[in-house]
Every structure is written in structure tokens, then in C-alpha cells.
Amino acid sequence: MGISPSGNYSLPQLHWLGWTTKEELVQVNSAIDNSGSIDVTLRPMGTNADSTGGLLLGAVWEDPSTGRRLFISVPKPRTNNSNQIEGGTVFVHRSAKGVGCTGACMGALQMAWFSVKSNTEHDAFGIFIKPVSYTSRFIQEGGQRIEVFTSVTLRIRR
User: Fold this and answer.
1) How far apart are the first and last CA of the chain?
2) How far apart are CA 58 and CA 98, in angstroms?
3) E runs forming strands in 8-158
4) Strand order through the sheet with 69-73
5) 90-128 pLDDT tens trace
6) Distance (Å, rounded) from C-alpha 78 to C-alpha 72?
7) pTM, whole model, 2 decimals?
8) 131 CB-side CA count, 13 A
9) 44, 149 in Cβ contact below 8 A?
């Protein structure tokens, strides 16, 4: 889970720990089945602070054949010193459903990792994810210009 506090937990781990709410996640299965794709706008997880803007923390797709879930998230709004994950990077983790979990099922396998600035579609275990847009701003810190991401919009299809 990492050497730092909650900043290194993956979205499935935060969810299992109860550090997210159902309203912060969107299950995309029915939207993909009905219309072929869905556009989802996510906020970076960062410190997992409550959102005041109504943006989602993550998207979840449940594989009907295995019961495993894919959690799609943006872990960091910006690069920081605790790890070198670039701000705006999209992560896709595959995990067990976690029903009756006593802690052993908290493992999550990273299936994809790509920049929101990528123009290509990425295959993550049968789900295809393409960055559509993002919002960011620049700050000055220690004499450097740092990009801070506030939202990422992804197109998800099967």
C-alpha cells in the first residue's frame, strides 16, 4: 500500500476501508451495455477530501463473467514528493468484489496507467478508456511552475 499514509492507497482500498461513499463512485456497466460508452468526469483523489463540486472520485466496471471489478481513478492532482505519480495520471485497478472481506482481499492489481494528456485509447482488461478532456491550473512553488489537475473526463467503452 506504500510507505506514506493514505495518499498511496488505491481507490479499491479506500472503498473497502469505507473512506469513500457510494455517491462518489459511478458503476458504468448499464451505461456501456445500453449506449456503448459513457463519459465520466472524475476529480483527483489527492487527500480524499470531500468534494464540494459534485465531481466523482471514480468509475467502477464489474466483469459479469468473473465478478471482478475495475476501479478507474486519478490518484493525484499533481506530482508530489511522496511518490512520483504525475498529476492527472489515470489508474485502472482490478480487484475482487470484496464481499465478506476480512482484509486479505484488499489487494488490487494495476491494469493500466496512462497520462490524461494521451490521445490514445487504452485497453484495461477488456474495457477501453480514452481521455477526452481535463481541467488544470498552474501554481508557482519553489521557483517551479507546477500543473494541478482539478478534473479529468474519460470515455469508457467495452
Assistant:
1) 29
2) 17
3) 25-27, 37-42, 58-62, 69-73, 89-95, 108-115, 122-124, 127-141, 144-157
4) 25-27, 58-62, 69-73, 89-95, 108-115
5) 999 988 776 555 555 556 778 889 999 999 999 998 899
6) 17
7) 0.85
8) 21
9) yes
Closest C-alpha to 93, from 73, 123, 117: 73
Question: Cell triple for residue 63?
Answer: 466483469
Q: Are 88 and 152 in contact (CB under 8 A)?
A: yes
Residue 73 in contact with residue 91, Cβ under 8 Å?
Answer: yes
Question: What residue spans of 62-144 are helical by DSSP H?
Answer: none
Task: Say what the pLDDT of residue 98 is.
Answer: 60
Q: Percent of the chain having pLDDT more than 90? A: 49
Contact at 8 Å (CB) between 129 and 92?
Answer: yes
